[in-house]
Amino acid sequence: MLTRWQAELQEELRQERHPLDFLAGKPERISQINEDATMFNLEEFLPYRLYQATERSSQKFPEIYTAKYDITRVEWRVLFNVGLYGPINSQEIVERTVLDKSKVSRAVQKLVVRGWLTRDGDKVDRRRKALQLTVEGEEILAELSARAERHNAAIIREIGSDRVEELLGLLRKIEAMDLLAEE
Amino acid sequence: MLTRWQAELQEELRQERHPLDFLAGKPERISQINEDATMFNLEEFLPYRLYQATERSSQKFPEIYTAKYDITRVEWRVLFNVGLYGPINSQEIVERTVLDKSKVSRAVQKLVVRGWLTRDGDKVDRRRKALQLTVEGEEILAELSARAERHNAAIIREIGSDRVEELLGLLRKIEAMDLLAEE
DNA sequence: TTGCAATAGTCGCGATTGCAACAGTTACAG
DNA sequence: CTGTAACTGTTGCAATCGCGACTATTGCAA
To answer: Distance between CA B38 and CA A141 in Å, rounded?
Structure first.
């Protein structure tokens, strides 16, 4: 069956996601799925289903921010972290986001140039540079936060508000599991 | 709603919870979370939680395959698709995986050189090239599939086998929702 | 038929990435 | 104190990426 393989698939898809392709009509297939004993049931493979749901639930966002603000995903991530946790230094963003520090460094540079955040030397530890949102940065982030709220509400409407806690509970169980022990 | 943005956030947060950071002693944080009215509650933000669970459920896999087989994520995705749906042509893999066609093309080249799949001209449509696994490719894929099965079983143990259908149902609802109408 | 649009796959090229080296700064053992 | 190790943030560079141009082939309208 298809456990591993699916984890694979999901992961890959996560990173390379490009939403609209799903919508495009597909031509006739020349291939059929192989009903091979060595292959597993993809439909019930949880990592795969989780991936699909995740992908679906976060669709549309990239195109909104890239089109409207001409900014990359990485830059958004940095901006959000500065907004939520600022003043914050780059290293902390690296830890929170698991982005490479060079990536963070470059994103910060662009955001500073753009005027969405400031980068001041830390008085206590001069290796660090304290990052903070500018007024403009705050405005944009506020707009995005509002969007996020509305989006979440839409999802809750879809699954039924009485089942939200149920879903969150299951998801938290999965998040808490210790995979290292299984392999 | 908050589609895009949330994908963003999820990504960020994923790292925050990364296990090893807990072990390594961290220096004092200079930043605290900002309890700002414009910020929303991340803990109950479904795209974020979904992302976290997805990430968690598919953890460990990349390092296993990259270390053992010295192959990239993209190459695995292509290999899996050929195994499940082969004979298949590149264009179909592009549609299924949402990888760029040049990426698929390059991955296929490497896999052919490596001897894990064959690329024969399609008799009906000579633009297409039919991809199929070699014996060696099948063996490797079988091993990965077995891993996937075991992995899925472990997740099911975690959440309880009686709640699997419940979770799948909720996930499918999310997958089926029409986000375009909400924005 | 014929001609043009559409498709499959490859490739060139600038942009982006991740790794690692580096400079500046701080922590700490002895 | 002192010297070494560790840490922060930047940058160089090779590898990879994605966009689009391109060739070869097929589909289809007139």
So the answer is: 8
Q: What's the confidence (pLDDT) of residue B16?
A: 33
DSSP structure class, residue B116: S
Q: Strand C-proximal residues, CB under 7 Å?
A: A 27, 72, 74, 99-103, 106, 124-127; B 89-92, 101-102, 105, 108-109, 119, 125, 127-129
Are B87 and A31 spatial neighbours (Cβ–Cβ below 8 Å)?
yes
> Does residue B71 sit in the same domain as residue B50?
no
Distance between CA atoms of B10 and A172, rounded to whole angstroms?
14
Would you say the C-alpha torsion B52, B57, B59, B65 has a positive or negative sign?
negative
- Quick check: B76 and A32 CB within 8 A? no
Torsion, Cα B55 B60 B64 B66, to 10 degrees, reads 40
Write down which residue in B42, B58, B74 finishes a domain: B58
- Supply the range of the domain harboring residue B132: 60-183
Same domain, A48 and A93: no
SS3 state at B117? strand
Q: Is there a contact between B150 and A182 (Cβ–Cβ < 8 Å)?
A: yes
- Mean pLDDT value across residues A46-65: 70
Could you list the pLDDT tens digit for every one of the 183 residues in chain B? 222 333 333 333 333 333 222 222 233 344 455 655 455 566 677 877 787 777 677 665 556 666 677 788 788 889 988 998 878 999 999 988 778 999 999 999 999 999 999 998 877 888 999 999 999 999 988 887 787 788 788 889 888 999 999 999 998 888 777 655 444
List bases in chain D with any atom under 7 Å of a protein Cβ.
7-12, 16-20, 24-27
Q: CA Rg, chain B, in Å?
A: 21
Q: How many domains does chain B have?
A: 2
B107 and B133 fall within a common domain: yes
The per-residue pLDDT for B24 is: 26
Strand C nucleotides, any atom under 7 Å from protein beta carbons: they are 7-12, 16-20, 24-27
Q: What is residue B66's predicted lDDT score, i.e. its pLDDT?
A: 66
In degrees, to the nearest 5, what angle opens at C-alpha A47 toward C-alphas A56 and A146? Answer: 35
The answer, for A13 touching chain B at a CB cutoff of 8 Å, is: yes
